[in-house]
Amino acid sequence: MIEKGKISAKQMAIMMYPVIVGTGIISVPAVTAKYAKNDLWVSPIWASLLGFIAVYIAFQLHKLYPRQTIIQYSELIMGRILGKILGFIYLVFYIQMNGGGIRIYGDFVTGAFLTNTPIIVVISTMVLVCTFAVRGGIEVMARTAQFFIPLYVLSTVIIIILLLPELDYKNMLPILEHGLMPSMKGAIAPGGWFAEFILVSFLFPYLTDVEKGGKWGMISVFSVMITFIATNFVILFLFGGNTARYLYPLFAASQYISIADFLEHLESVIMAMWVAGNFIKFSVVFYAIVLCTAQWLNLSDYRPLVFPLGFLTLLFSIWGVPSKMVESEYNFIVFPVYSFFVQILIPLLLFMVAVLRKRNRTKRMKTT
User: Fold this and answer.
1) Structural domains in the chain?
2) Alpha helices (runs of H) in the chain, residue ranges in sequence order
3) What is the pLDDT of residues 105-149, one digit of tens each?
């Protein structure tokens, strides 16, 4: 195997948590509120269904083709040519996804904090740190996630607690005034993020307790869903019908914290939390990119590809997303559909074909 390291199913769940929450917790609530209004807290429940489906498909495929990633068993299921085409689709998709996510990160940091710093500097430093993490291997990333994610969750909980005096619980009323459809429309954007749980297909082959992979994958999806529901509740209770007007609602919410004119201006906590979470997110996706490329090219080691692909991701984050308007349209209109096609429909097709082929083989064995 290309990767010699091993992680536990619990570590995998911890690694996957910021992959979705990292960028989603900052920007998605505003888009959800645009469609769901005061029912934006319901949308993560609908969106999480794609996460549960992705984990289920990935785990079932792994049971059929153990110790192989989706790039490897695509060729076994669909044949060499079609398998290579699907592998290339995944490679391009994840480079685009990581580049777009890094651009969101860069725009947030330069727009809210480092206003005089060129965005290329902010993006380059993040990409460089991620390349070192990926070169260290899957065990390094897992241990880093174990260190940062508890702090990430704790800081989120503290901010929610400190905001409690400012919240108006009447903002959620009336509940489902216009039925379920608005909340379903609001689930489209976060659904694209939840579909990213198909990335567990790149991690399952390296689990020490692979039989627990499906369970911990589902736990990770549930944890992300609860996080989105909680933050959406807080934002809704604080801003009410004005939520959709804020580009970064959670960041704006942190500016409302003021206790005895002493404990205030906690925006730096939000930034530190977000940077740590996004570091894990970009590292995991980048790991999938280099692993995908190495397996697609039938290489024996992925490490020589780390820096070239890091540079390619950097270029895409700058040239592939030329403006804030293009970034917004891509992330909240194009990406959810693109993500659903690549991360849900294609794996579902692979699973169906694999099951049919297994049944045909079983029938032939019985007849012979």
Assistant:
1) 9-367 (1.20.1740.10)
2) 9-36, 43-64, 70-78, 80-112, 119-136, 138-163, 181-186, 188-194, 213-239, 249-254, 267-296, 306-315, 324-329, 335-340, 346-367
3) 888 888 777 788 888 999 999 999 999 999 988 999 999 999 888
